[in-house]
Every structure is written in structure tokens, then in C-alpha cells.
UniProtKB/TrEMBL annotation:
Superkingdom of origin: Bacteria
Protein name: Uncharacterized protein
Keywords per UniProt: Membrane, Transmembrane, Transmembrane helix
Transmembrane helix as UniProt keyword: yes
Pfam assignment, any one: DUF6131
Bilayer-spanning residue ranges: 6-38
């Protein structure tokens, strides 16, 4: 999710498409939150690790 968010963020910046920029930021934030929760050992969506 982090990689997809970064790709969409870059595409939105290069192509000047604001919806890609917005979706990329949202995916980066959600992916970072899931990554942090998973790395702290907290179960995410019933799974011990999220990746």
C-alpha cells in the first residue's frame, strides 16, 4: 500500500492530476498507519503482522 501510494503520488505530480495526488496521500497515510501498528506487534485486521 505504501508503494502504490508513492507511485500514485508521483504520477499525480508529474501528470498534474489532482485526484491521483489525493489518493496517493491517502494510501500513504493508511499504509504507514498499518505498517506502524503491525511493527509494534499489535494485531491488524486479525493478523499479527501486516505486509
Amino acid at each position: 500500500m505504501l508503494i502504490l501510494g508513492a507511485i500514485l503520488l508521483l504520477l499525480g505530480l508529474i501528470l498534474k492530476v489532482s485526484i491521483l495526488w489525493t489518493i496517493g496521500i491517502i494510501l500513504l497515510v493508511v499504509g504507514a498507519a498499518l505498517f506502524v501498528m503491525g511493527s509494534l506487534g499489535r494485531p491488524v485486521a486479525g493478523r499479527r503482522h501486516y505486509w
